[in-house]
Amino acid sequence: xxxxxxxxxxxxxxxxxxxxxxxxxxxxxxxxxxxxxxxxxxxxxxxxxxxxxxxxxxxxxxxxxxxxxxxxxxxxxxxxxxxxxxxxxxxxxxxxxxxxxxxxxxxxxxxxxxxxxxxxxxxxxxxxxxxxxxxxxxxxxxxxxxxxxxxxxxxxxxxxxxxxxxxxxxxxxxxxxxxxxxxxxxxxxxxxxxxxxxxxxxxxxxxxxxxxxxxxxxxxxxxxxxxxxxxxxxxxxxxxxxxxxxxxxxxxxxxxxxxxxxxxxxxxxxxxxxxxxxxxxxxxxxxxxxxxxxxxxxxxxxxxxxxxxxxxxxxxxxxxxxxxxxxxxxxxxxxxxxxxxxxxxxxxxxxxxxxxxxxxxxxxxxxxxxxxxxxxxxxxxxxxxxxxxxxxxxxxxxxxxxxxxxxxxxxxxxxxxxxx
Amino acid sequence: xxxxxxxxxxxxxxxxxxxxxxxxxxxxxxxxxxxxxxxxxxxxxxxxxxxxxxxxxxxxxxxxxxxxxxxxxxxxxxxxxxxxxxxxxxxxxxxxxxxxxxxxxxxxxxxxxxxxxxxxxxxxxxxxxxxxxxxxxxxxxxxxxxxxxxxxxxxxxxxxxxxxxxxxxxxxxxxxxxxxxxxxxxxxxxxxxxxxxxxxxxxxxxxxxxxxxxxxxxxxxxxxxxxxxxxxxxxxxxxxxxxxxxxxxxxxxxxxxxxxxxxxxxxxxxxxxxxxxxxxxxxxxxxxxxxxxxxxxxxxxxxxxxxxxxxxxxxxxxxxxxxxxxxxxxxxxxxxxxxxxxxxxxxxxxxxxxxxxxxxxxxxxxxxxxxxxxxxxxxxxxxxxxxxxxxxxxxxxxxxxx
Amino acid sequence: xxxxxxxxxxxxxxxxxxxxxxxxxxxxxxxxxxxxxxxxxxxxxxxxxxxxxxxxxxxxxxxxxxxxxxxxxxxxxxxxxxxxxx
Lengths: 420, 402, 86
Fold this sequence. Notes:
The complex is a heterotrimer. Chain B is of the alpha/beta class. Chain B has twelve helices and 16 strands. By secondary structure, chain C is mainly alpha-helical. Chain C has a single domain, classed as ACP-like (Non-ribosomal Peptide Synthetase Peptidyl Carrier Protein, Chain A). Helices cover 59% and strands 0% of the residues of chain C. Chain C has five helices and no strands. Chain C is globular and about 35 Å long. The chains are: A alpha/beta, B alpha/beta, C mainly alpha. At the A-B interface, α4, α5, α6, β6 and α7 of A face α4, α5, α6, β6 and α7 of B.
């Protein structure tokens, strides 16, 4: 008997609003949360805009000690976990049967940079200074501490890990967790992804390769996936956490089920650490494998949540991948990129996008691609410009693409689907 | 159920480059722990490490890869090439999407990261390398290996402190079970730069001894912390039938894996390490009596050593199984640790010999049969590897003869 | 300001620092009009090269101009124009 994996709880921290409802309101209203960077002085950078989260750890129930010692990304994870656990109503009676998997692309880079500045007198000291009073550095140094933070928050004692595959971490963490449930290793996983990369070194490294949008004068409309005038992604931050369970486990306790994690795959382009070939070949393969695992036909896809980062290369690449994997159905399927509204939060965004997909299924509403006013002739699908659309959504495809050449795809379906 | 076998090893360790050098040094009990030469560590309370010596990246890698790679990625790329050579396979010749790679990571390309942070803060944003965006991040080794060897199959990157290597090997086995033809798995790590060093010191677990022979003494009465090291291993994994069909030399079977997380300190709940050991044996369908050797984690923190000894004794009976910590020769390699132990375990199976734990003497009250000083010859069919990481991570891996 | 000409040798030296090299890194005069991509330099290598040239010569090269300099000759000419104007 196949063990099927369902989602029973969602917690979101996203730019423009803390909590699942605030996040979903922003998306369905088509508002954007991109703005000038306020978290640090970004005046020297080429791109000085981002989608920031207005987050005050102590207002969200973290202790003063947690606020001081945990990286912002870890704080996001713990707060979002609380929302997801409350939403699912799961109580953990068997800690050994519950896992924790957290995705993150850049870990505690904010805390690491802050501590580097202190330890090096802003880069003047080499070797850097050791201060025995700084005892939190190791937890930032190895970001598996994020998994520990979440597991100790909920009382899980099953396998715990951090999945860090760059910008596909948000999908890959959930895909990894689904396997733990499917294989019977555990019955439930608290899983999701977090990143808080808004820090000078992040801005500097994306500036250096001109990956981020320099549209500093019009930040609210800077993230323009699939638009002819797109000129790079807008950095974001955030987190989404889920409770996922074996379907019968969820049903037995009468849990509300958002949907089924039906299929997932990741493939590599083996081409370039940052570049993409235009043909979308490897992403198409990931989509095909995910569809196969889900036992879903290409024609069944009701909505595609695109990676849609708004770089020239990406949007063309994945448009090609959708056509390759879904054939003519790609032209009939609404496709949208929520990065147009909440930016690109690196390893977190894939999980945040899964949350958007589940809410799209719940409400039969497809979130729009904001700022898409001048279609790019090379991106010729239905990207749901500007305004959310009422649309029956039972089966969703969501994809991610990232540095390292990683291409991931996930298929989510309603939970009561009969397998063919 | 699909059987996953290991057909290739690529090893890079403080005690040797390549399987043969490493294994010879390991059986000789050579100590790879020495005063740090890679950076000026003289001002720190600890200044010993297991450094990889004699590795000149330009001898092993295309020049084009050097500006964009951290030291640990260069070592990983060399180890990957050696692993494929050892397996007699070139993944670029296999059907598209049939070869993948899963690596463990702990702190990414940290030395590269330190240099670019210094460039940013001491000189300015325009001095930050165009390669920084991926040379530091945790996924870099998987990405660079996949590109260099044209591997378009499933990929992964796992971070679970020092236990991550076991999780990576198990995840690669999962991909073989799902149909991947061949997977490369393991970890190669280094954070031996001043900025990494103070992070290690912050863990509070690094030995402050200055005699390389007295610094890392797991299970000893005078255990005083560990010594960080660099290096690791990458393993070629294949489905057994396919491996035999091509006449591959088979080192052994990846038979079982399990992982657990300890509850937080002060919770009053016990360590879950024993459950990880039992889980891995159950996954391998192996009875404790069948296990010939345990490669221990060997934290060399008295309380942690007691917990590990208690878990081993609970599963096997007191002193009932030979245990060893070859890490005493290399230091702890973080995400590289389990893969290197796995290589050692497979070589133990091949040669019928258990490598020694050097410098340490088992405290009698721990009740362990610690193989010390010299190797112990005996038939080895099944080995258990124990790995623990800061933050409560426990992982166990069972390897057996094919 | 600077009257020193930016030469092919200068470009080769900076390309090597920025992108690494295998064996001889000299770009022959025959290859002056061969596109960088064909010479094995990708966009990352050229962005790193551009940044190093800017720092070494104290100039600012517009992104569009750098992206449009597809060959060694085009890039050398561009740098010389910028240094002459500086």
